Amino acid sequence: MDINLYRLLPSVDEVLRDESIAHLLNDNKRENVVKIIRRVIEKYRMEINNNVNFIVDKAEIIRQVVNDIEMRKLMNLKRVVNGTGIVIHTNLGRSPLPKQIKDNIWEVASHYSTLEYDVEKGERGSRYLHIEELLCEISGAEAAIVVNNNAAAVLLALSTIAKGKEVVVSRGQLVEIGGSFRIPEVMMQSGAILREVGTTNKTHDYDYINAISENTALLLKVHTSNYKIIGFTEEVSSSRLVEIGLKFKIPTMEDLGSGVMIDLEKYGLEYEPTVQDCVKAGVDIITFSGDKLLGGPQAGIIVGKKKYIDLMKKNPLTRALRVDKLCLSSLEAILKIYRDSDPVEIIPTLKMLTKKENDLYNSAMELKRMISGIPGIKSEILKLNSMAGGGSLPLENLPSYGVAISVDGLSTNGLEKKLRQNIIPIIVRIISDRVTVDVRTLIDDDYQIIVDALKHIVEVCS
Ligand SMILES: *Cc1c(COP(=O)(O)O)cnc(C)c1O
């Protein structure tokens, strides 16, 4: 090995003296810049170690240092383009919030606020007040509280109402959601005792009735939001469960999961029990997510009878599960959209779910048109099925359109990877060995971002 190759490596000081690096010291800590220079030089030392013929170029080292420092500035948690067609994509942050509410959030985030302050009385107030009235007005419930997510809502409700006592649940409803939320396990964490009744496909009202004893604290119904049992099946309706509860003086609870507040059937989607229907049926405690079909921020919303919600507010667990001001301000703004406007017109999750096939086709045509000018790219309109996702509407195949894209000289996996590694990552599906973008989940300038990324990929490849 020619030892002189190592001599060609510049010293840290030499790199620091370079004009473009000196420039970086204006808005980067010197110690960090030095650390990155050392790391880059070390990397090249290793290259020389591994490859006798490796030629070191000082300009290349400086370029690498500048690039590494720029990359460090980029946020790790950042926006992506969702080209999967999965509307409530848990890995991609579930529901995007509407632009209309950004000022509300920023006002509260960047100033002091009435978070726990009662302006009328000039004393400490409740952080739940901001959304409680709204939730009651929209859902028809007596009271409401919000916690970190729906898993927390179920945990809090069970711990408050049923600790050390039995909760009766149908065997057909012992759900697992997204890996870590399982009804039997949440039950165990809460200190409640699971009393399973019925069978996987059929549970009758007498199954609940026969299970009731002096040890029963709650009758629980769980919405099987991410699967359906079809065929020879039977489950007890919310209103029948409420009748049984009233007769035996046992409260009823329903974990709705998705928590839809509008009638989806009106838009040609399958019926999904609404929060309002559940309140109307007389269920005492109802829990649902803020970021599934509601289309808001991550939150666990509990609505129901004041008697039980008041008990939950006093549970010390509530303090550990509480939501912050960013969540509350965005949730309040979202709920106001439900109260005052047509949520389907404004809330992205609902807008995407209810997009018309014809509009989707036109959007796909538009994307294809925008791409078609780029040399070396082939694209084709495809008919697709998108999914609601997030454990919602499991049987719903939402007819959609997309564009299959290929780049000359790049494999399907190669293109998928390059799109994923774009500055704004573009997440796609591979369908029949082709990179496919479903237009259902594209938002405003996503189209341009895809076009720019493809232009860049073609340039680098040729
Ligand atoms: C999604 C879901 C949960 C978990 O809700 P998170 O908001 O993700 O905590 C619990 N129960 C049901 C039925 C669900 O669909």
Please specify the SSE layout and strand pairing.
Elements: H1 4-7, H2 12-17, H3 19-24, H4 30-50, H5 58-73, E1 81-82, E2 86-88, H6 102-110, E3 117-118, E4 123-124, H7 129-139, E5 143-147, H8 150-162, E6 166-170, E7 176-177, E8 181-182, H9 183-190, E9 193-197, H10 205-211, E10 216-222, H11 238-248, E11 252-257, H12 275-280, E12 285-289, E13 300-304, H13 306-314, H14 316-320, H15 325-340, H16 343-346, H17 348-353, H18 357-372, E14 377-389, E15 398-407, H19 412-420, E16 426-427, E17 429-431, E18 434-438, H20 446-461
Parallel strand pairs: 1-16, 2-14, 6-9, 6-10, 10-11, 11-12
Antiparallel strand pairs: 3-4, 5-13, 7-8, 12-13, 14-15, 15-18, 17-18
Helix pairs in contact: 4-5, 6-15, 7-15, 8-9, 8-13
The structure holds pyridoxal-5'-phosphate.
Outline the biggest β-sheet.
Answer: 7 strands, mixed
Q: Which stretches of 5+ consecutive residues score pLDDT under 50? A: none
Helix content: 40-55%
Bound molecule kinds, no repeats: pyridoxal-5'-phosphate
Q: How far is the N terminus from the C terminus? A: 35 Å
Secondary structure tally, helices = 20
Overall pLDDT metric:
94
**Helix/strand structural class:** alpha/beta
Number of strands: 18
- What is the 3D form? globular
